[in-house]
Amino acid sequence: MRHLLSTADLAKDEAIELLDTAAQMAATQSREIKKLPTLRGRTVVNLFFEDSTRTRISFETAAKRLSADVINFSAKGSSVSKGESLKDTALTLHAMGADAVVVRHWASGAPYQLAHAGWLDAAVLNAGDGTHMHPTQALLDAYTIRRHLGGHGGGLRRGGDDGVGADLAGVKVAIVGDVLHSRVARANVWLLRTLGAEVTLVSPPTLLPVGVESWPCRTSYDLDATLADWQPDAVMMLRVQRERMSGGAGAFFPSPLEYTRYFGLDGRRLALLPAHSIVMHPGPMNRGLEISAEAADSDRAVIVEQVANGVAVRMASLYLLLSGTASSAAVPASLPAPVSSTTEGTAL
Amino acid sequence: MTAGTGMPGTPDPRDVPEGTVVLGASDVARALTRIAHEIVERAKGAQDVVLLGIPTRGVTLAARLAQRLASIDPAFDPERDLGELDVTMYRDDLRRQPTRAVGVTRLPAAGIEGKTVVLVDDVLFSGRTIRAALDAIGDLGRPQAVRLACLVDRGHRELPIRPDFVGKNLPTAQTERVRVLLAEVDGSDAVVISGREPGAAAPGEGDQR
User: Fold this and answer.
1) Closest Cα of chain B to A339: distance in Å?
2) How many CB atoms lie within 10 A of CB A43?
3) Which residues have CB under 8 Å from A7's CB, separation 6+?
4) How far apart are CA B158 and CA B177, in angstroms?
5) Over the Cα atoms of chain B, what is R_g?
6) Residue pair A328/A348 in contact by the 8 Å Cβ criterion
7) Is residue B207 part of a domain?
8) How many angstroms separate the CA atoms of A282 and A299, rounded?
9) Which DSSP symbol is given to B73?
10) What are phi and psi of A279, to 5 degrees?
11) Which of A21, A325, A339 is facing B96, going by the closest CB pair?
12) How far is B96 from chain A (nearest CA, A)?
């Protein structure tokens, strides 16, 4: 793995390796000394062209816990606001010797361009691009689902060994809300599918994108019927992204109150779910719009745990992208190390 | 390049890859028993001893040592005082090797604070794994003492690190490969040297410590 750009091109064994590594990283985060020397001397640049608090802080925490140096670069108040192009920004970062670039951009495909245009030789991690992908969010969601439900075909497995090594075969996940503007939904649909889970998108027709019928998932316009009849193991509520709705909220649904009545998760809908099911939200939540305080604060909600798992998943991503020789990414990690290391002369 | 040559305790030759078998199953068992006695002698009992195996084969060896320690001194409880220590994230060669999978670190519930930690590894070579393990231990607590047990010491140290308990000192050339095979992982017990130049002297029998 050279870059982490999309969950659609992650193979199943790569995804499980990421989740298993995240489990080991999470174990180190309960220690008194949380810092590991693993990426000492490497530089991680957080390149954020769009506002973000939790993703940026999560990546920054992850990099610092691995002893990497972190440089935060946000478009506001930087050379980008003076009109610098993505290419020139990338060349600047290259000249500064960045080893990894975590990029969030309002344009779908910007991280791909950064990774493949030849401007940079750093590893590129997509931290959300437009309405395209948000791979680390999907990975932390999958990790959270696996911790609670994984390995037993949707059955119960709380606690225990956290499902290390398992996929999500048979787990049913409902993703509810503003799918149209959601890179989280897109990233999750493909990753959960790769891991063997079944996904149903629940959304008003106006908030489902054109072409959704070609995605590897089912769709529904009826939240009550999906919860009651399909009995999902996990319900992922999406934020209504009002800042992306150019005409204001009214352009996609008649009123916030009507949206809440039809697609909001409240105590009544929570009671329709099976007893082992979990409630997720990528945050930040609009309490009272897509999720009620009762649902958000219930003991089924794993929303705060998702944030903690995000650090572990991002540590795993940085570790897997930045350790190891760049040319040897295809060699399985289980190969025994040669006794007289012939790779030493060719190291970075 | 002969396979096992009928040594006592030599496993089925089909299980042994190409190379010279220097320790058979019974040799491995005797070495572990002796190491267990030495650990108890050195610590004057086993009440504060914690065994930490370094993956993968160090973990298996530590489990076997734990059984022996428990039979020597009932104060040692294999359930309570045995753990494993993954050192991947403390290695100094992460950028020179293919990406390594991160293993499990499992410590005794009581931690390692104030204990006598015995690190267990299969082959001691450059000493860099042990250096990483010492750093990892430093982040996990402050043991009263750290000791090192290994089944084979093959020399060629690159750091000032010395084992406290050795199964067998094995003079080797830098180009040779020493492998410890264990029944739990590999199907049979043996220590095998491969890559030895033809005509090289077999290791002397008198160098067992």
Assistant:
1) 6
2) 19
3) A15, A133, A135, A138, A139, A187, A188, A190, A191, A194
4) 17
5) 17
6) no
7) no
8) 17
9) -
10) -110, 130
11) A325
12) 5
pLDDT tens-digit readout, A118-172: 999 999 999 999 999 999 999 999 999 999 986 554 444 433 466 788 899 999 9
Reading the block at residue A230, the tokens are 């399909």
The answer to whether the CB atoms of B174 and A339 lie below 8 A apart is yes
The total number of residues written for chain A in this structure = 348
Residue B125 C-alpha, separation from nearest chain A C-alpha, in angstroms: 9
Q: How many domains does chain B contain in total?
A: 1
B100 — contact with chain A (CB < 8 Å)? yes
What token pair was written down for A224? 């009550």
Buried b (16+ CB within 10 A) or exposed e, B180-203: bbbeeebebbbbbbebbeeeeeeb
At A163 the pLDDT is 76
Peptide bond between residue A284 and the one before it cis (omega within 30 degrees of 0) = yes
Query: Distances from the Cα of A319 to the Cαs of A162, A186, B84, in angstroms?
Result: 20, 24, 21
Domains of chain A: 12-132+308-328 (3.40.50.1370), 135-306 (3.40.50.1370)
List of chain A residues whose C-beta atoms are within 8 Å of the C-beta of residue B100: 323-324, 333
Residue indicated by tokens 């914690």: B50
Considering only CB atoms, which chain A residues are within 8 Å of B55?
Answer: none
CATH code of the domain covering residue B172: 3.40.50.2020
ipTM computed for the complex: 0.79
In a domain, B203, yes or no: no
Number of cross-chain residue pairs from A and B with Cβ atoms under 8 Å apart: 79
Element (H, E) at B145: strand B145-153
